[in-house]
Design brief:
177 residues; mainly beta; 15 strands
């Protein structure tokens, strides 16, 4: 089953004209950068790293319940850790991702998405009924929006002027920006 999931993930990560996958504008369990694909595994508490050119794989322990991952700027990944009430930040400028920071967030960070330039990162705080906005460079929390009903999934409009939020357990969209 995992092989099928990885194959589907790779098919979705086709490089664009620059040789890099397009920047994801929605919460995801998979992101790509060049020939590298990263995915979270909540059951094992890991971040999986695959170089699709060489076939090399690496499992990095990240902690409790990694739920979503976002590429932030050119060289960072942010991974939400639901059971640790935190975000793990990885430097991906080299071939092997390196944990560089943990950002305390509060109860159950779930979805995460960043602007294409990495200047802003948005995190859905499912048990706090809130969306947090972070500065992508300093990791400082800038703003908070109250939303109802267990926000989990985020999508940023390509213009950067609207952030869409879907709620669990049944998905109902809303807009916060």
């Amino acid at each position: 089953m995992r092989t099928i999931v990885v194959a589907l993930a790779l098919a979705a990560c086709t490089p664009g004209p620059s040789g890099d996958a397009p920047h994801a504008l929605g919460s995801s369990t998979v992101v790509a950068r060049g020939s590298h694909v990263y995915t979270v595994n909540a059951w094992d508490g890991t971040l999986s790293h695959l170089d699709w050119r060489t076939g090399a794989t690496l499992q990095l322990p990240v902690g409790g319940e990694p739920t979503r991952v976002a590429r932030v700027g050119a060289d960072e990944l942010w991974v939400t850790l639901r059971s640790e009430r935190a975000i793990a930040v990885f430097d991906i400028s080299d071939d092997e991702p390196r944990l560089t920071a943990r950002i305390a967030t509060g109860a159950e960070p779930h979805g995460v998405v960043s602007t294409p330039d990495g200047s802003r990162v948005y995190v859905a705080m499912s048990q706090q009924d809130a969306i947090f906005e972070f500065d992508g460079a300093t990791h400082e929390r800038l703003r908070t929006w109250g939303v109802m009903d267990d926000p989990r999934w985020l999508a940023l409009h390509p213009s950067g002027r609207a952030l869409f939020v879907a709620h669990g357990p049944d998905i109902r969209p809303g807009v916060v920006l």
